[in-house]
Amino acid sequence: MKKTFLLLMWAWALVAGAQQVTITSTTRLLKDVEPAFYPTLNASGDRLLYSDASAHGLKMLDLATSKVTTISNDDGAGFDAKWSNDGKVYYITSEVNSKDHLVYRTGKRYDLARNTSKVVLEAQHGALHLETGTQGMAINGTRHSYATSSSRGVSVYTTGSQLVVNQGGKESRFTPVESYAGYLWSSISPGGDKIAFFAAGKGIIVTTLKGKVLAQLGNYEMPCWYNNDYIVAQNATDDGHQFTSSQILLLKADGTFRHELTPRTSMTMQPTAGGGKIVYTTIDGNLTMITIDINE
């Protein structure tokens, strides 16, 4: 009996000590410059998109030089801007039409090399969905759409309670879990073999490219891939009117591991990851970048 107990304790110690996460650096970004929200790192982790609290306008921070470039001053530009695999930035602006008083949205692309923006999808009424792929981008609208090419490698976006996956130009739609309020924040893993998204009322879901559920990670928000095995997410609570707590978590994509990168009282939110870096902001717009070490 004693020997069995010692063996169990030894096995538990191996499991408990198998994964340890250490924050190796912490850097405050844009300190004393301006508040920043909706941060989005590029894949190499050397450039960061951000906006103000209302997503009015879109800016880019070069992490090597600390230079800030204004990409757009238009409404909505900073809410869901995304990097493409070729280093360009795709974003959506919105404007209320003076004649019919409806909101019209326009799809745009920013070229860093030329420092210019171009309209790629003319203004239309209705939602526009940015579709990020391993080899291209698309902007999907109810009337008209835009794509960099017919084949975008593997790409994904959500509409309502559907996960829309494009592989080699062939589109498939899945509903891996029931969620009457819909899906948000979908993305392909760096290895191109898994999808993570948020389902309202269910939390973060990880699936195969065919919509098969691999793991349900908990009722957290805004998942983004740290690498092919780990996801960074936001864990926030509210009282129906305002946030009461918010923190950043590191989650293993198979659901076997969870680590708090910030405390619940920190009011940290809106995580993004790229190039081995993690960036998040606070409810007051204090932008912070960290690096971590995962010991498995």
Overview of the molecule:
The protein is globular and about 55 Å long. The chain has 296 residues and is mostly beta strands. A hairpin with a 3-residue loop joins strand 10 and strand 11 (137-141). It contains one helix and 26 strands. The two termini are 30 Å apart. Strands 12-11-10-13-14-15 form a six-stranded antiparallel beta sheet, with no helix packed on it. The chain has one helix spanning 2-18; strands at residues 20-29, 37-41, 47-51, 58-62, 68-72, 82-83, 89-96, 103-111, 116-125, 128-133, 137-141, 146-147, 154-159, 162-167, 170-174, 183-188, 195-199, 203-207, 213-218, 221-225, 230-238, 243-252, 258-260, 268-274, 277-282, 287-295.
**CA gyration radius, whole angstroms:** 20 Å
The strand count comes to: 26
Strand share of the residues? over 45%
Order of helices and strands: HEEEEEEEEEEEEEEEEEEEEEEEEEE
Please outline the major beta sheet.
6 strands, antiparallel
Name the shape in a single word.
globular
The whole-number mean of residue pLDDT values reads: 92
End-to-end C-alpha gap? 30 Å
Strand order of the largest sheet: 12-11-10-13-14-15
- What is the helix content? under 10%
